[in-house]
Design brief:
Blueprint lengths: L8 H7 L4 E3 L2 E4 L9 H13 L22 H4 L2 E4 L4 E3 L1 H4 L2 H13 L1 H4 L4 H12 L5 E3 L5 E5 L7 E5 L7 H13 L10 E4 L2 E6 L28 E2 L1
Parallel strand pairs: 1-5
Antiparallel strand pairs: 1-4, 2-3, 2-10, 6-7, 7-9, 8-9
């Protein structure tokens, strides 16, 4: 957290009936070659088996949205997910039968042990499949950063200035120097405006909120290995 939050986050969640709050978005999938649609197929099958074909709001960023059968990698691209290094959840809601049944089905399948079905995509799917969209909230009002890898620069992650900062550029320079100790010049090509919010991100999410997100990690782009490519915004 890179700026003050002038309210109680937990009080906000309780007051407005929010069951899940998150700070950033990431596009990621459970893809492991040569079965790029395996995770999506698992979700489609569960929906038809247990949820009468309900897709919740999983299809919001997909091109075709007629039924849960449209939840395919080809139609939806990298899954619209929550960058869950920061999140707040209503534990009581996650302990309800529908969530526990879904998570138990995932666990029993054994896929999380042999595929890249990780916390990000499982948590994001749970929320979008079973929780009401109006009971989720995307926090953007305060500054935040998360970086994986080397501390000397933004290796993989995001730094985003709060939407309501009165002087976002000045604040960006301050946190880059005071909190991150990163070179301004080195990171210029990662800096952009995301829906009016000053954002530093790697990998750069030009298509983060569309269904056309790419399918290669930068370091495997020429290897012939197709692996997930999260885009963070």
């Amino acid at each position: 957290l890179l700026s003050e939050i002038p309210y109680n986050l937990f009080g906000f969640m309780e007051h407005f009936g929010v069951n899940y709050g998150y700070r950033n978005i990431a596009r990621e999938t459970g893809l492991i070659w040569p079965h790029p649609d395996q995770y999506n197929a698992f979700i489609r099958d569960y929906s038809q088996l247990k949820l009468n074909g309900s897709a919740g709001w999983l299809l919001d960023t997909c091109e075709q949205k007629s039924s849960v059968l449209d939840f395919t990698r080809e139609n939806c691209g990298e899954q619209y997910g929550f960058y869950n290094n920061f999140f707040i959840a209503n534990i009581d809601r996650f302990l309800e039968d529908d969530v526990q049944s879904f998570l138990g089905h995932l666990d029993d399948s054994g896929n999380i042990f042999v595929n890249r079905w990780n916390d990000l995509i499982i948590q994001s799917t749970t929320v979008q499949l079973l929780l009401k969209k109006e009971n989720t909230f995307h926090f953007t009002g305060w500054s935040y950063a998360h970086n994986s890898g080397f501390n000397s620069s933004l290796h993989y992650g995001i730094l985003q200035v709060g939407r309501f900062n009165e002087n976002p550029v000045q604040h960006y320079y301050e946190v880059m120097d005071r909190d991150m100790d990163w070179s301004i010049e080195e990171h210029m090509n990662m800096l952009y405006m995301n829906n009016g919010i000053l954002t530093l991100s790697n990998p750069a999410p030009e298509t983060c909120c569309s269904s056309k997100a790419g399918g290669l990690w930068p370091h495997t782009a020429n290897s012939g290995i197709m692996t997930p490519n999260p885009m963070i915004c």
